[in-house]
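agent> Task received from the user: take the single chain below, predict its 3D structure, and emit structure tokens. No templates, no multimer pairing.
agent> Plan: (1) validate residues, (2) run structure prediction, (3) serialize to tokens, (4) report one or two observations.
agent> Step 1 OK, no nonstandard residues flagged.
tool_call: predict_structure(input=
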Amino acid sequence: MSKKILFTATPTEKRAALLENERVVELVVERPDSLRFVGNIYRGKIVSILPGIQAAFVDIGLEKAAFLHAADVDPSLLLEEGDSLAERYMDQGKSKRRKVIRIPIEKVLEEGQEILVQVLKEPIGTKGAKVTTQISLAGRFLVLVPDADFIGVSKKTSDDKARLKLKKLIAALKPRGVGFIVRTIGLQVSEPEFVKEMQSLIDKWRKAQEEALTGSAPKLVYREMGITTRVIRDLLSDEVSEVYVDQDDDFAEIQSYLRSVSPDVCNRVVHYKDKTPLFDKYNIEKDLELSLKRKVWLRSGGYILFDHAEALLAIDVNTGRNVGKFNLEETIFKTNLEAAHEIARQFRLRDIGGIIVIDFIDMEKADNRRKIEDEMRRLLRNDPSATSITQLSKFGLMEITRKRVRPELQELYTDVCSVCNGLGWVFSPATVTARIDRWLNRADSHDTPRELNLAVNPAVAAYLAREDNQMLRKLEQEHNFKLSVIKDDALDQDDYEFYPKGGSKPITSKYI
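)
tool_result: status=success, residues=512
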């Protein structure tokens, strides 16, 4: 499978896209006002404890208190069997039952207590971040697990001899008192590379500990890598043939990181300098616009509908314009099969998480139903997020759960419509600004007047005017235009119009 990674950045956002066989399957977005928190380590303060749900809320300095469940409290708090304070939990193993005694969370933590926690899940909707006291630091080849003297190996390899050999190597290299997990990309790494990364991760953990001992909670003690280095660390594998980067500083950052961990792959990184915007060259913008739509058309003429409910996502498969060439059962089977491939891609592209119910078109043949189940399972094996899948029910329904770590793409790019109160969506002011930014980027390479009037909805105008017009100035400096913003109540929040200074005819459509 051919893979590429593309990085593009503007003053309004940084984006990274993973392409498989020339189609985008993953998108990572970071904006100045919505930085990611997963992986960050904080010195937090317990603000409340809820024994009824065995959880606590922790102030880590974000807008909402973080959620800490008892299951995410360090295993060292497990008690020996027989302790009078303990509650008993049964853990069903594959071959035997064993008793695990866990002390109640209210006996471990107390309000006002300061603890070290790491973010597991971004704040989503009305919920704060989810955190754990079980700290880990990810590198390119290894994951450091402090205060846990064990060795793990990625489950992506089924070669037991190779796993055992790796465990013995890591055991001989690592210091006592810390644990390491070998990541999938580390399965073919040499001993010197392991030693170098071990030392790097241990140094990071030592600095985080030192930072945690200064000041008072809440405070950030360790920040996870930024989007550029993080994507390279997590997504750059042997299958990725090329990495394209359109910004000087991002290119330098990637080269610096790779020289320190994998100098042999530096030549895969290409500094993109063409006038055509990088995402336009690979037709990604249009694909991303479609990914936010409720309806996604299939090449056969069928289509898929995505509908969000409070607790789940419902996906409906329809034949649409696909009338087939042979018989009804064959037409339905091929539509369902095509839909399965597109749904698996949309899971990753939209970053869908939680409970998902797919309503496939009913099939009469049991063999066809089994083929759809098997294909869906095969497709989800390529998904980096943990998934669980059920069989097709007699009603043609399939239930899937997918691990949710951050808000879905739709939540990032859209706001709830103030007119319909949540029944529909509009682009957020930040997204409209990013679209304006891309318009200016295209217009910059043409014979476009340097002074323009920009008509936008008042909500977008307010966003551009924040912090003493800082965003507007960034756009002007980046693209060498002089912009005058005009509030236009007649424009929907999604829309904007550019006019030459003193002109009455819009020129927006020229560079859409």
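agent> Step 4: summary for the user.
The first strand starts at residue 3 and ends at 9.
agent> Done.
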